[in-house]
Amino acid sequence: MDENCSTEPCANVWGMSDDSENGDWRSTTIDAAQAEHNPKVAAAVERITQLRQSIDNIDGAAIALLAERFKATAQVGQLKAEAGFAPADYQREDYQIQRLHRIAEDAGLDPDIAEMYREFVVTETKKRHARIAAAGGDPQVLDVFA
Ligand SMILES: O=C(O)C(=O)C[C@]1(C(=O)O)C=C[C@@H](O)C=C1
């Protein structure tokens, strides 16, 4: 990292024109035209473009996996409603918290991120379980089945 970047905006050390000229260096829209006369900027633009392709692939896979997860939990919600079980199972959640914490650490991911993910999906799942139970166990009550 350029030593100028620790305290100052990085964008213009490469001679790029960006939002920093308007006083907002926190936002930079990558524009290939800026790279034309600056090889360092050109290399950065090329690499960012490659990385964005990976990011888009990862986002697509994450959404597909989430869809599968919610399809599975909708079935759990139906089974729980039919058996008279409550939406939440805190013993299961404790197990999931510990397990995802371990997996995150092994993967080099901040466990807080794993916990934010878990909290989000489990909270949404419990809301959907409650809606299925209120509809007498019919998962079709969900706007989208998954
Ligand atoms: O495993 C269950 O019992 C579920 O209902 C699924 C799930 C989850 O989303 O993973 C949701 C709610 C429970 O509190 C625990 C786990």
Automatic annotation (TrEMBL):
<dbReference type="InterPro" id="IPR036263">
    <property type="entry name" value="Chorismate_II_sf"/>
</dbReference>
<dbReference type="InterPro" id="IPR002701">
    <property type="entry name" value="CM_II_prokaryot"/>
</dbReference>
<dbReference type="InterPro" id="IPR051331">
    <property type="entry name" value="Chorismate_mutase-related"/>
</dbReference>
<dbReference type="GO" id="GO:0009697">
    <property type="term" value="P:salicylic acid biosynthetic process"/>
</dbReference>
<dbReference type="InterPro" id="IPR010951">
    <property type="entry name" value="CM_bact"/>
</dbReference>
<feature type="domain" description="Chorismate mutase">
    <location>
        <begin position="42"/>
        <end position="133"/>
    </location>
</feature>
<dbReference type="Pfam" id="PF01817">
    <property type="entry name" value="CM_2"/>
</dbReference>
<dbReference type="GO" id="GO:0004106">
    <property type="term" value="F:chorismate mutase activity"/>
</dbReference>
<keyword id="KW-0413">Isomerase</keyword>
<dbReference type="InterPro" id="IPR036979">
    <property type="entry name" value="CM_dom_sf"/>
</dbReference>
<dbReference type="GO" id="GO:0046417">
    <property type="term" value="P:chorismate metabolic process"/>
</dbReference>
<protein>
    <submittedName>
        <fullName>Chorismate mutase</fullName>
    </submittedName>
</protein>
